[in-house]
């Protein structure tokens, strides 16, 4: 093998490994999203309020730890988007039943 063939082989291997990792993450995310979609309507307004407060606190704690780690802006944007989506869904569910 030449140097360029070796490099291509390494790149192919890295792409395959990354694709597998992304696939695992996407599958887990899909299952969690479907669980949320099924579970959220079953929660009472009081439960939604309780979860909202607890989730907000836990995610604020996570964000403070994230400040100590260098992560890409896209990670922070996705984290905040999902956080806000979940908190809004809990607020809406709480308001719908109140």
Distance between the termini: 69 Å
Give the CA-based shape.
Answer: elongated
List the total number of helices.
3
Helices and strands, in N-to-C order?
HHH
Largest sheet: none
Low-confidence stretches: none
Question: What is the radius of gyration computed over CA atoms, rounded to a whole number of angstroms?
Answer: 20 Å
Helix content: over 70%
- Overall pLDDT metric: 93
Q: Provide the structure class.
A: mainly alpha
Total number of distinct structural domains: 2
Number of strands: 0
Residues in β-strands, percent: under 5%
What do you see in this structure?
The protein is mostly helical and about 100 residues long. It has two domains: about 40 residues; about 55 residues. It contains three helices and no strands. The radius of gyration is 20 Å and the shape is elongated. The model has no long low-confidence stretch (mean pLDDT about 95).
Notable features of this structure?
98 residues; 2 domains; 3 helices; mainly alpha
The gist of it:
The protein has three helices and no strands. It has helices at 3-39, 45-66, 73-97.
List the helices and strands and how they pair.
Elements: H1 3-39, H2 45-66, H3 73-97
Helix pairs in contact: 2-3
């Amino acid at each position: 093998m030449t140097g360029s063939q070796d490099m291509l082989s390494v790149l192919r291997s890295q792409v395959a490994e990354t694709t597998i990792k992304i696939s695992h993450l996407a599958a887990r995310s899909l299952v969690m999203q479907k669980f949320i979609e099924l579970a959220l309507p079953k929660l009472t307004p009081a439960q939604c309020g309780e979860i909202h407060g607890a989730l907000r606190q836990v995610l604020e704690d996570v964000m403070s730890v994230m400040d100590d780690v260098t992560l890409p802006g896209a990670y922070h944007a996705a984290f905040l988007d999902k956080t806000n989506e979940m908190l809004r869904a809990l607020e809406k569910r709480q308001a719908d039943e109140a």
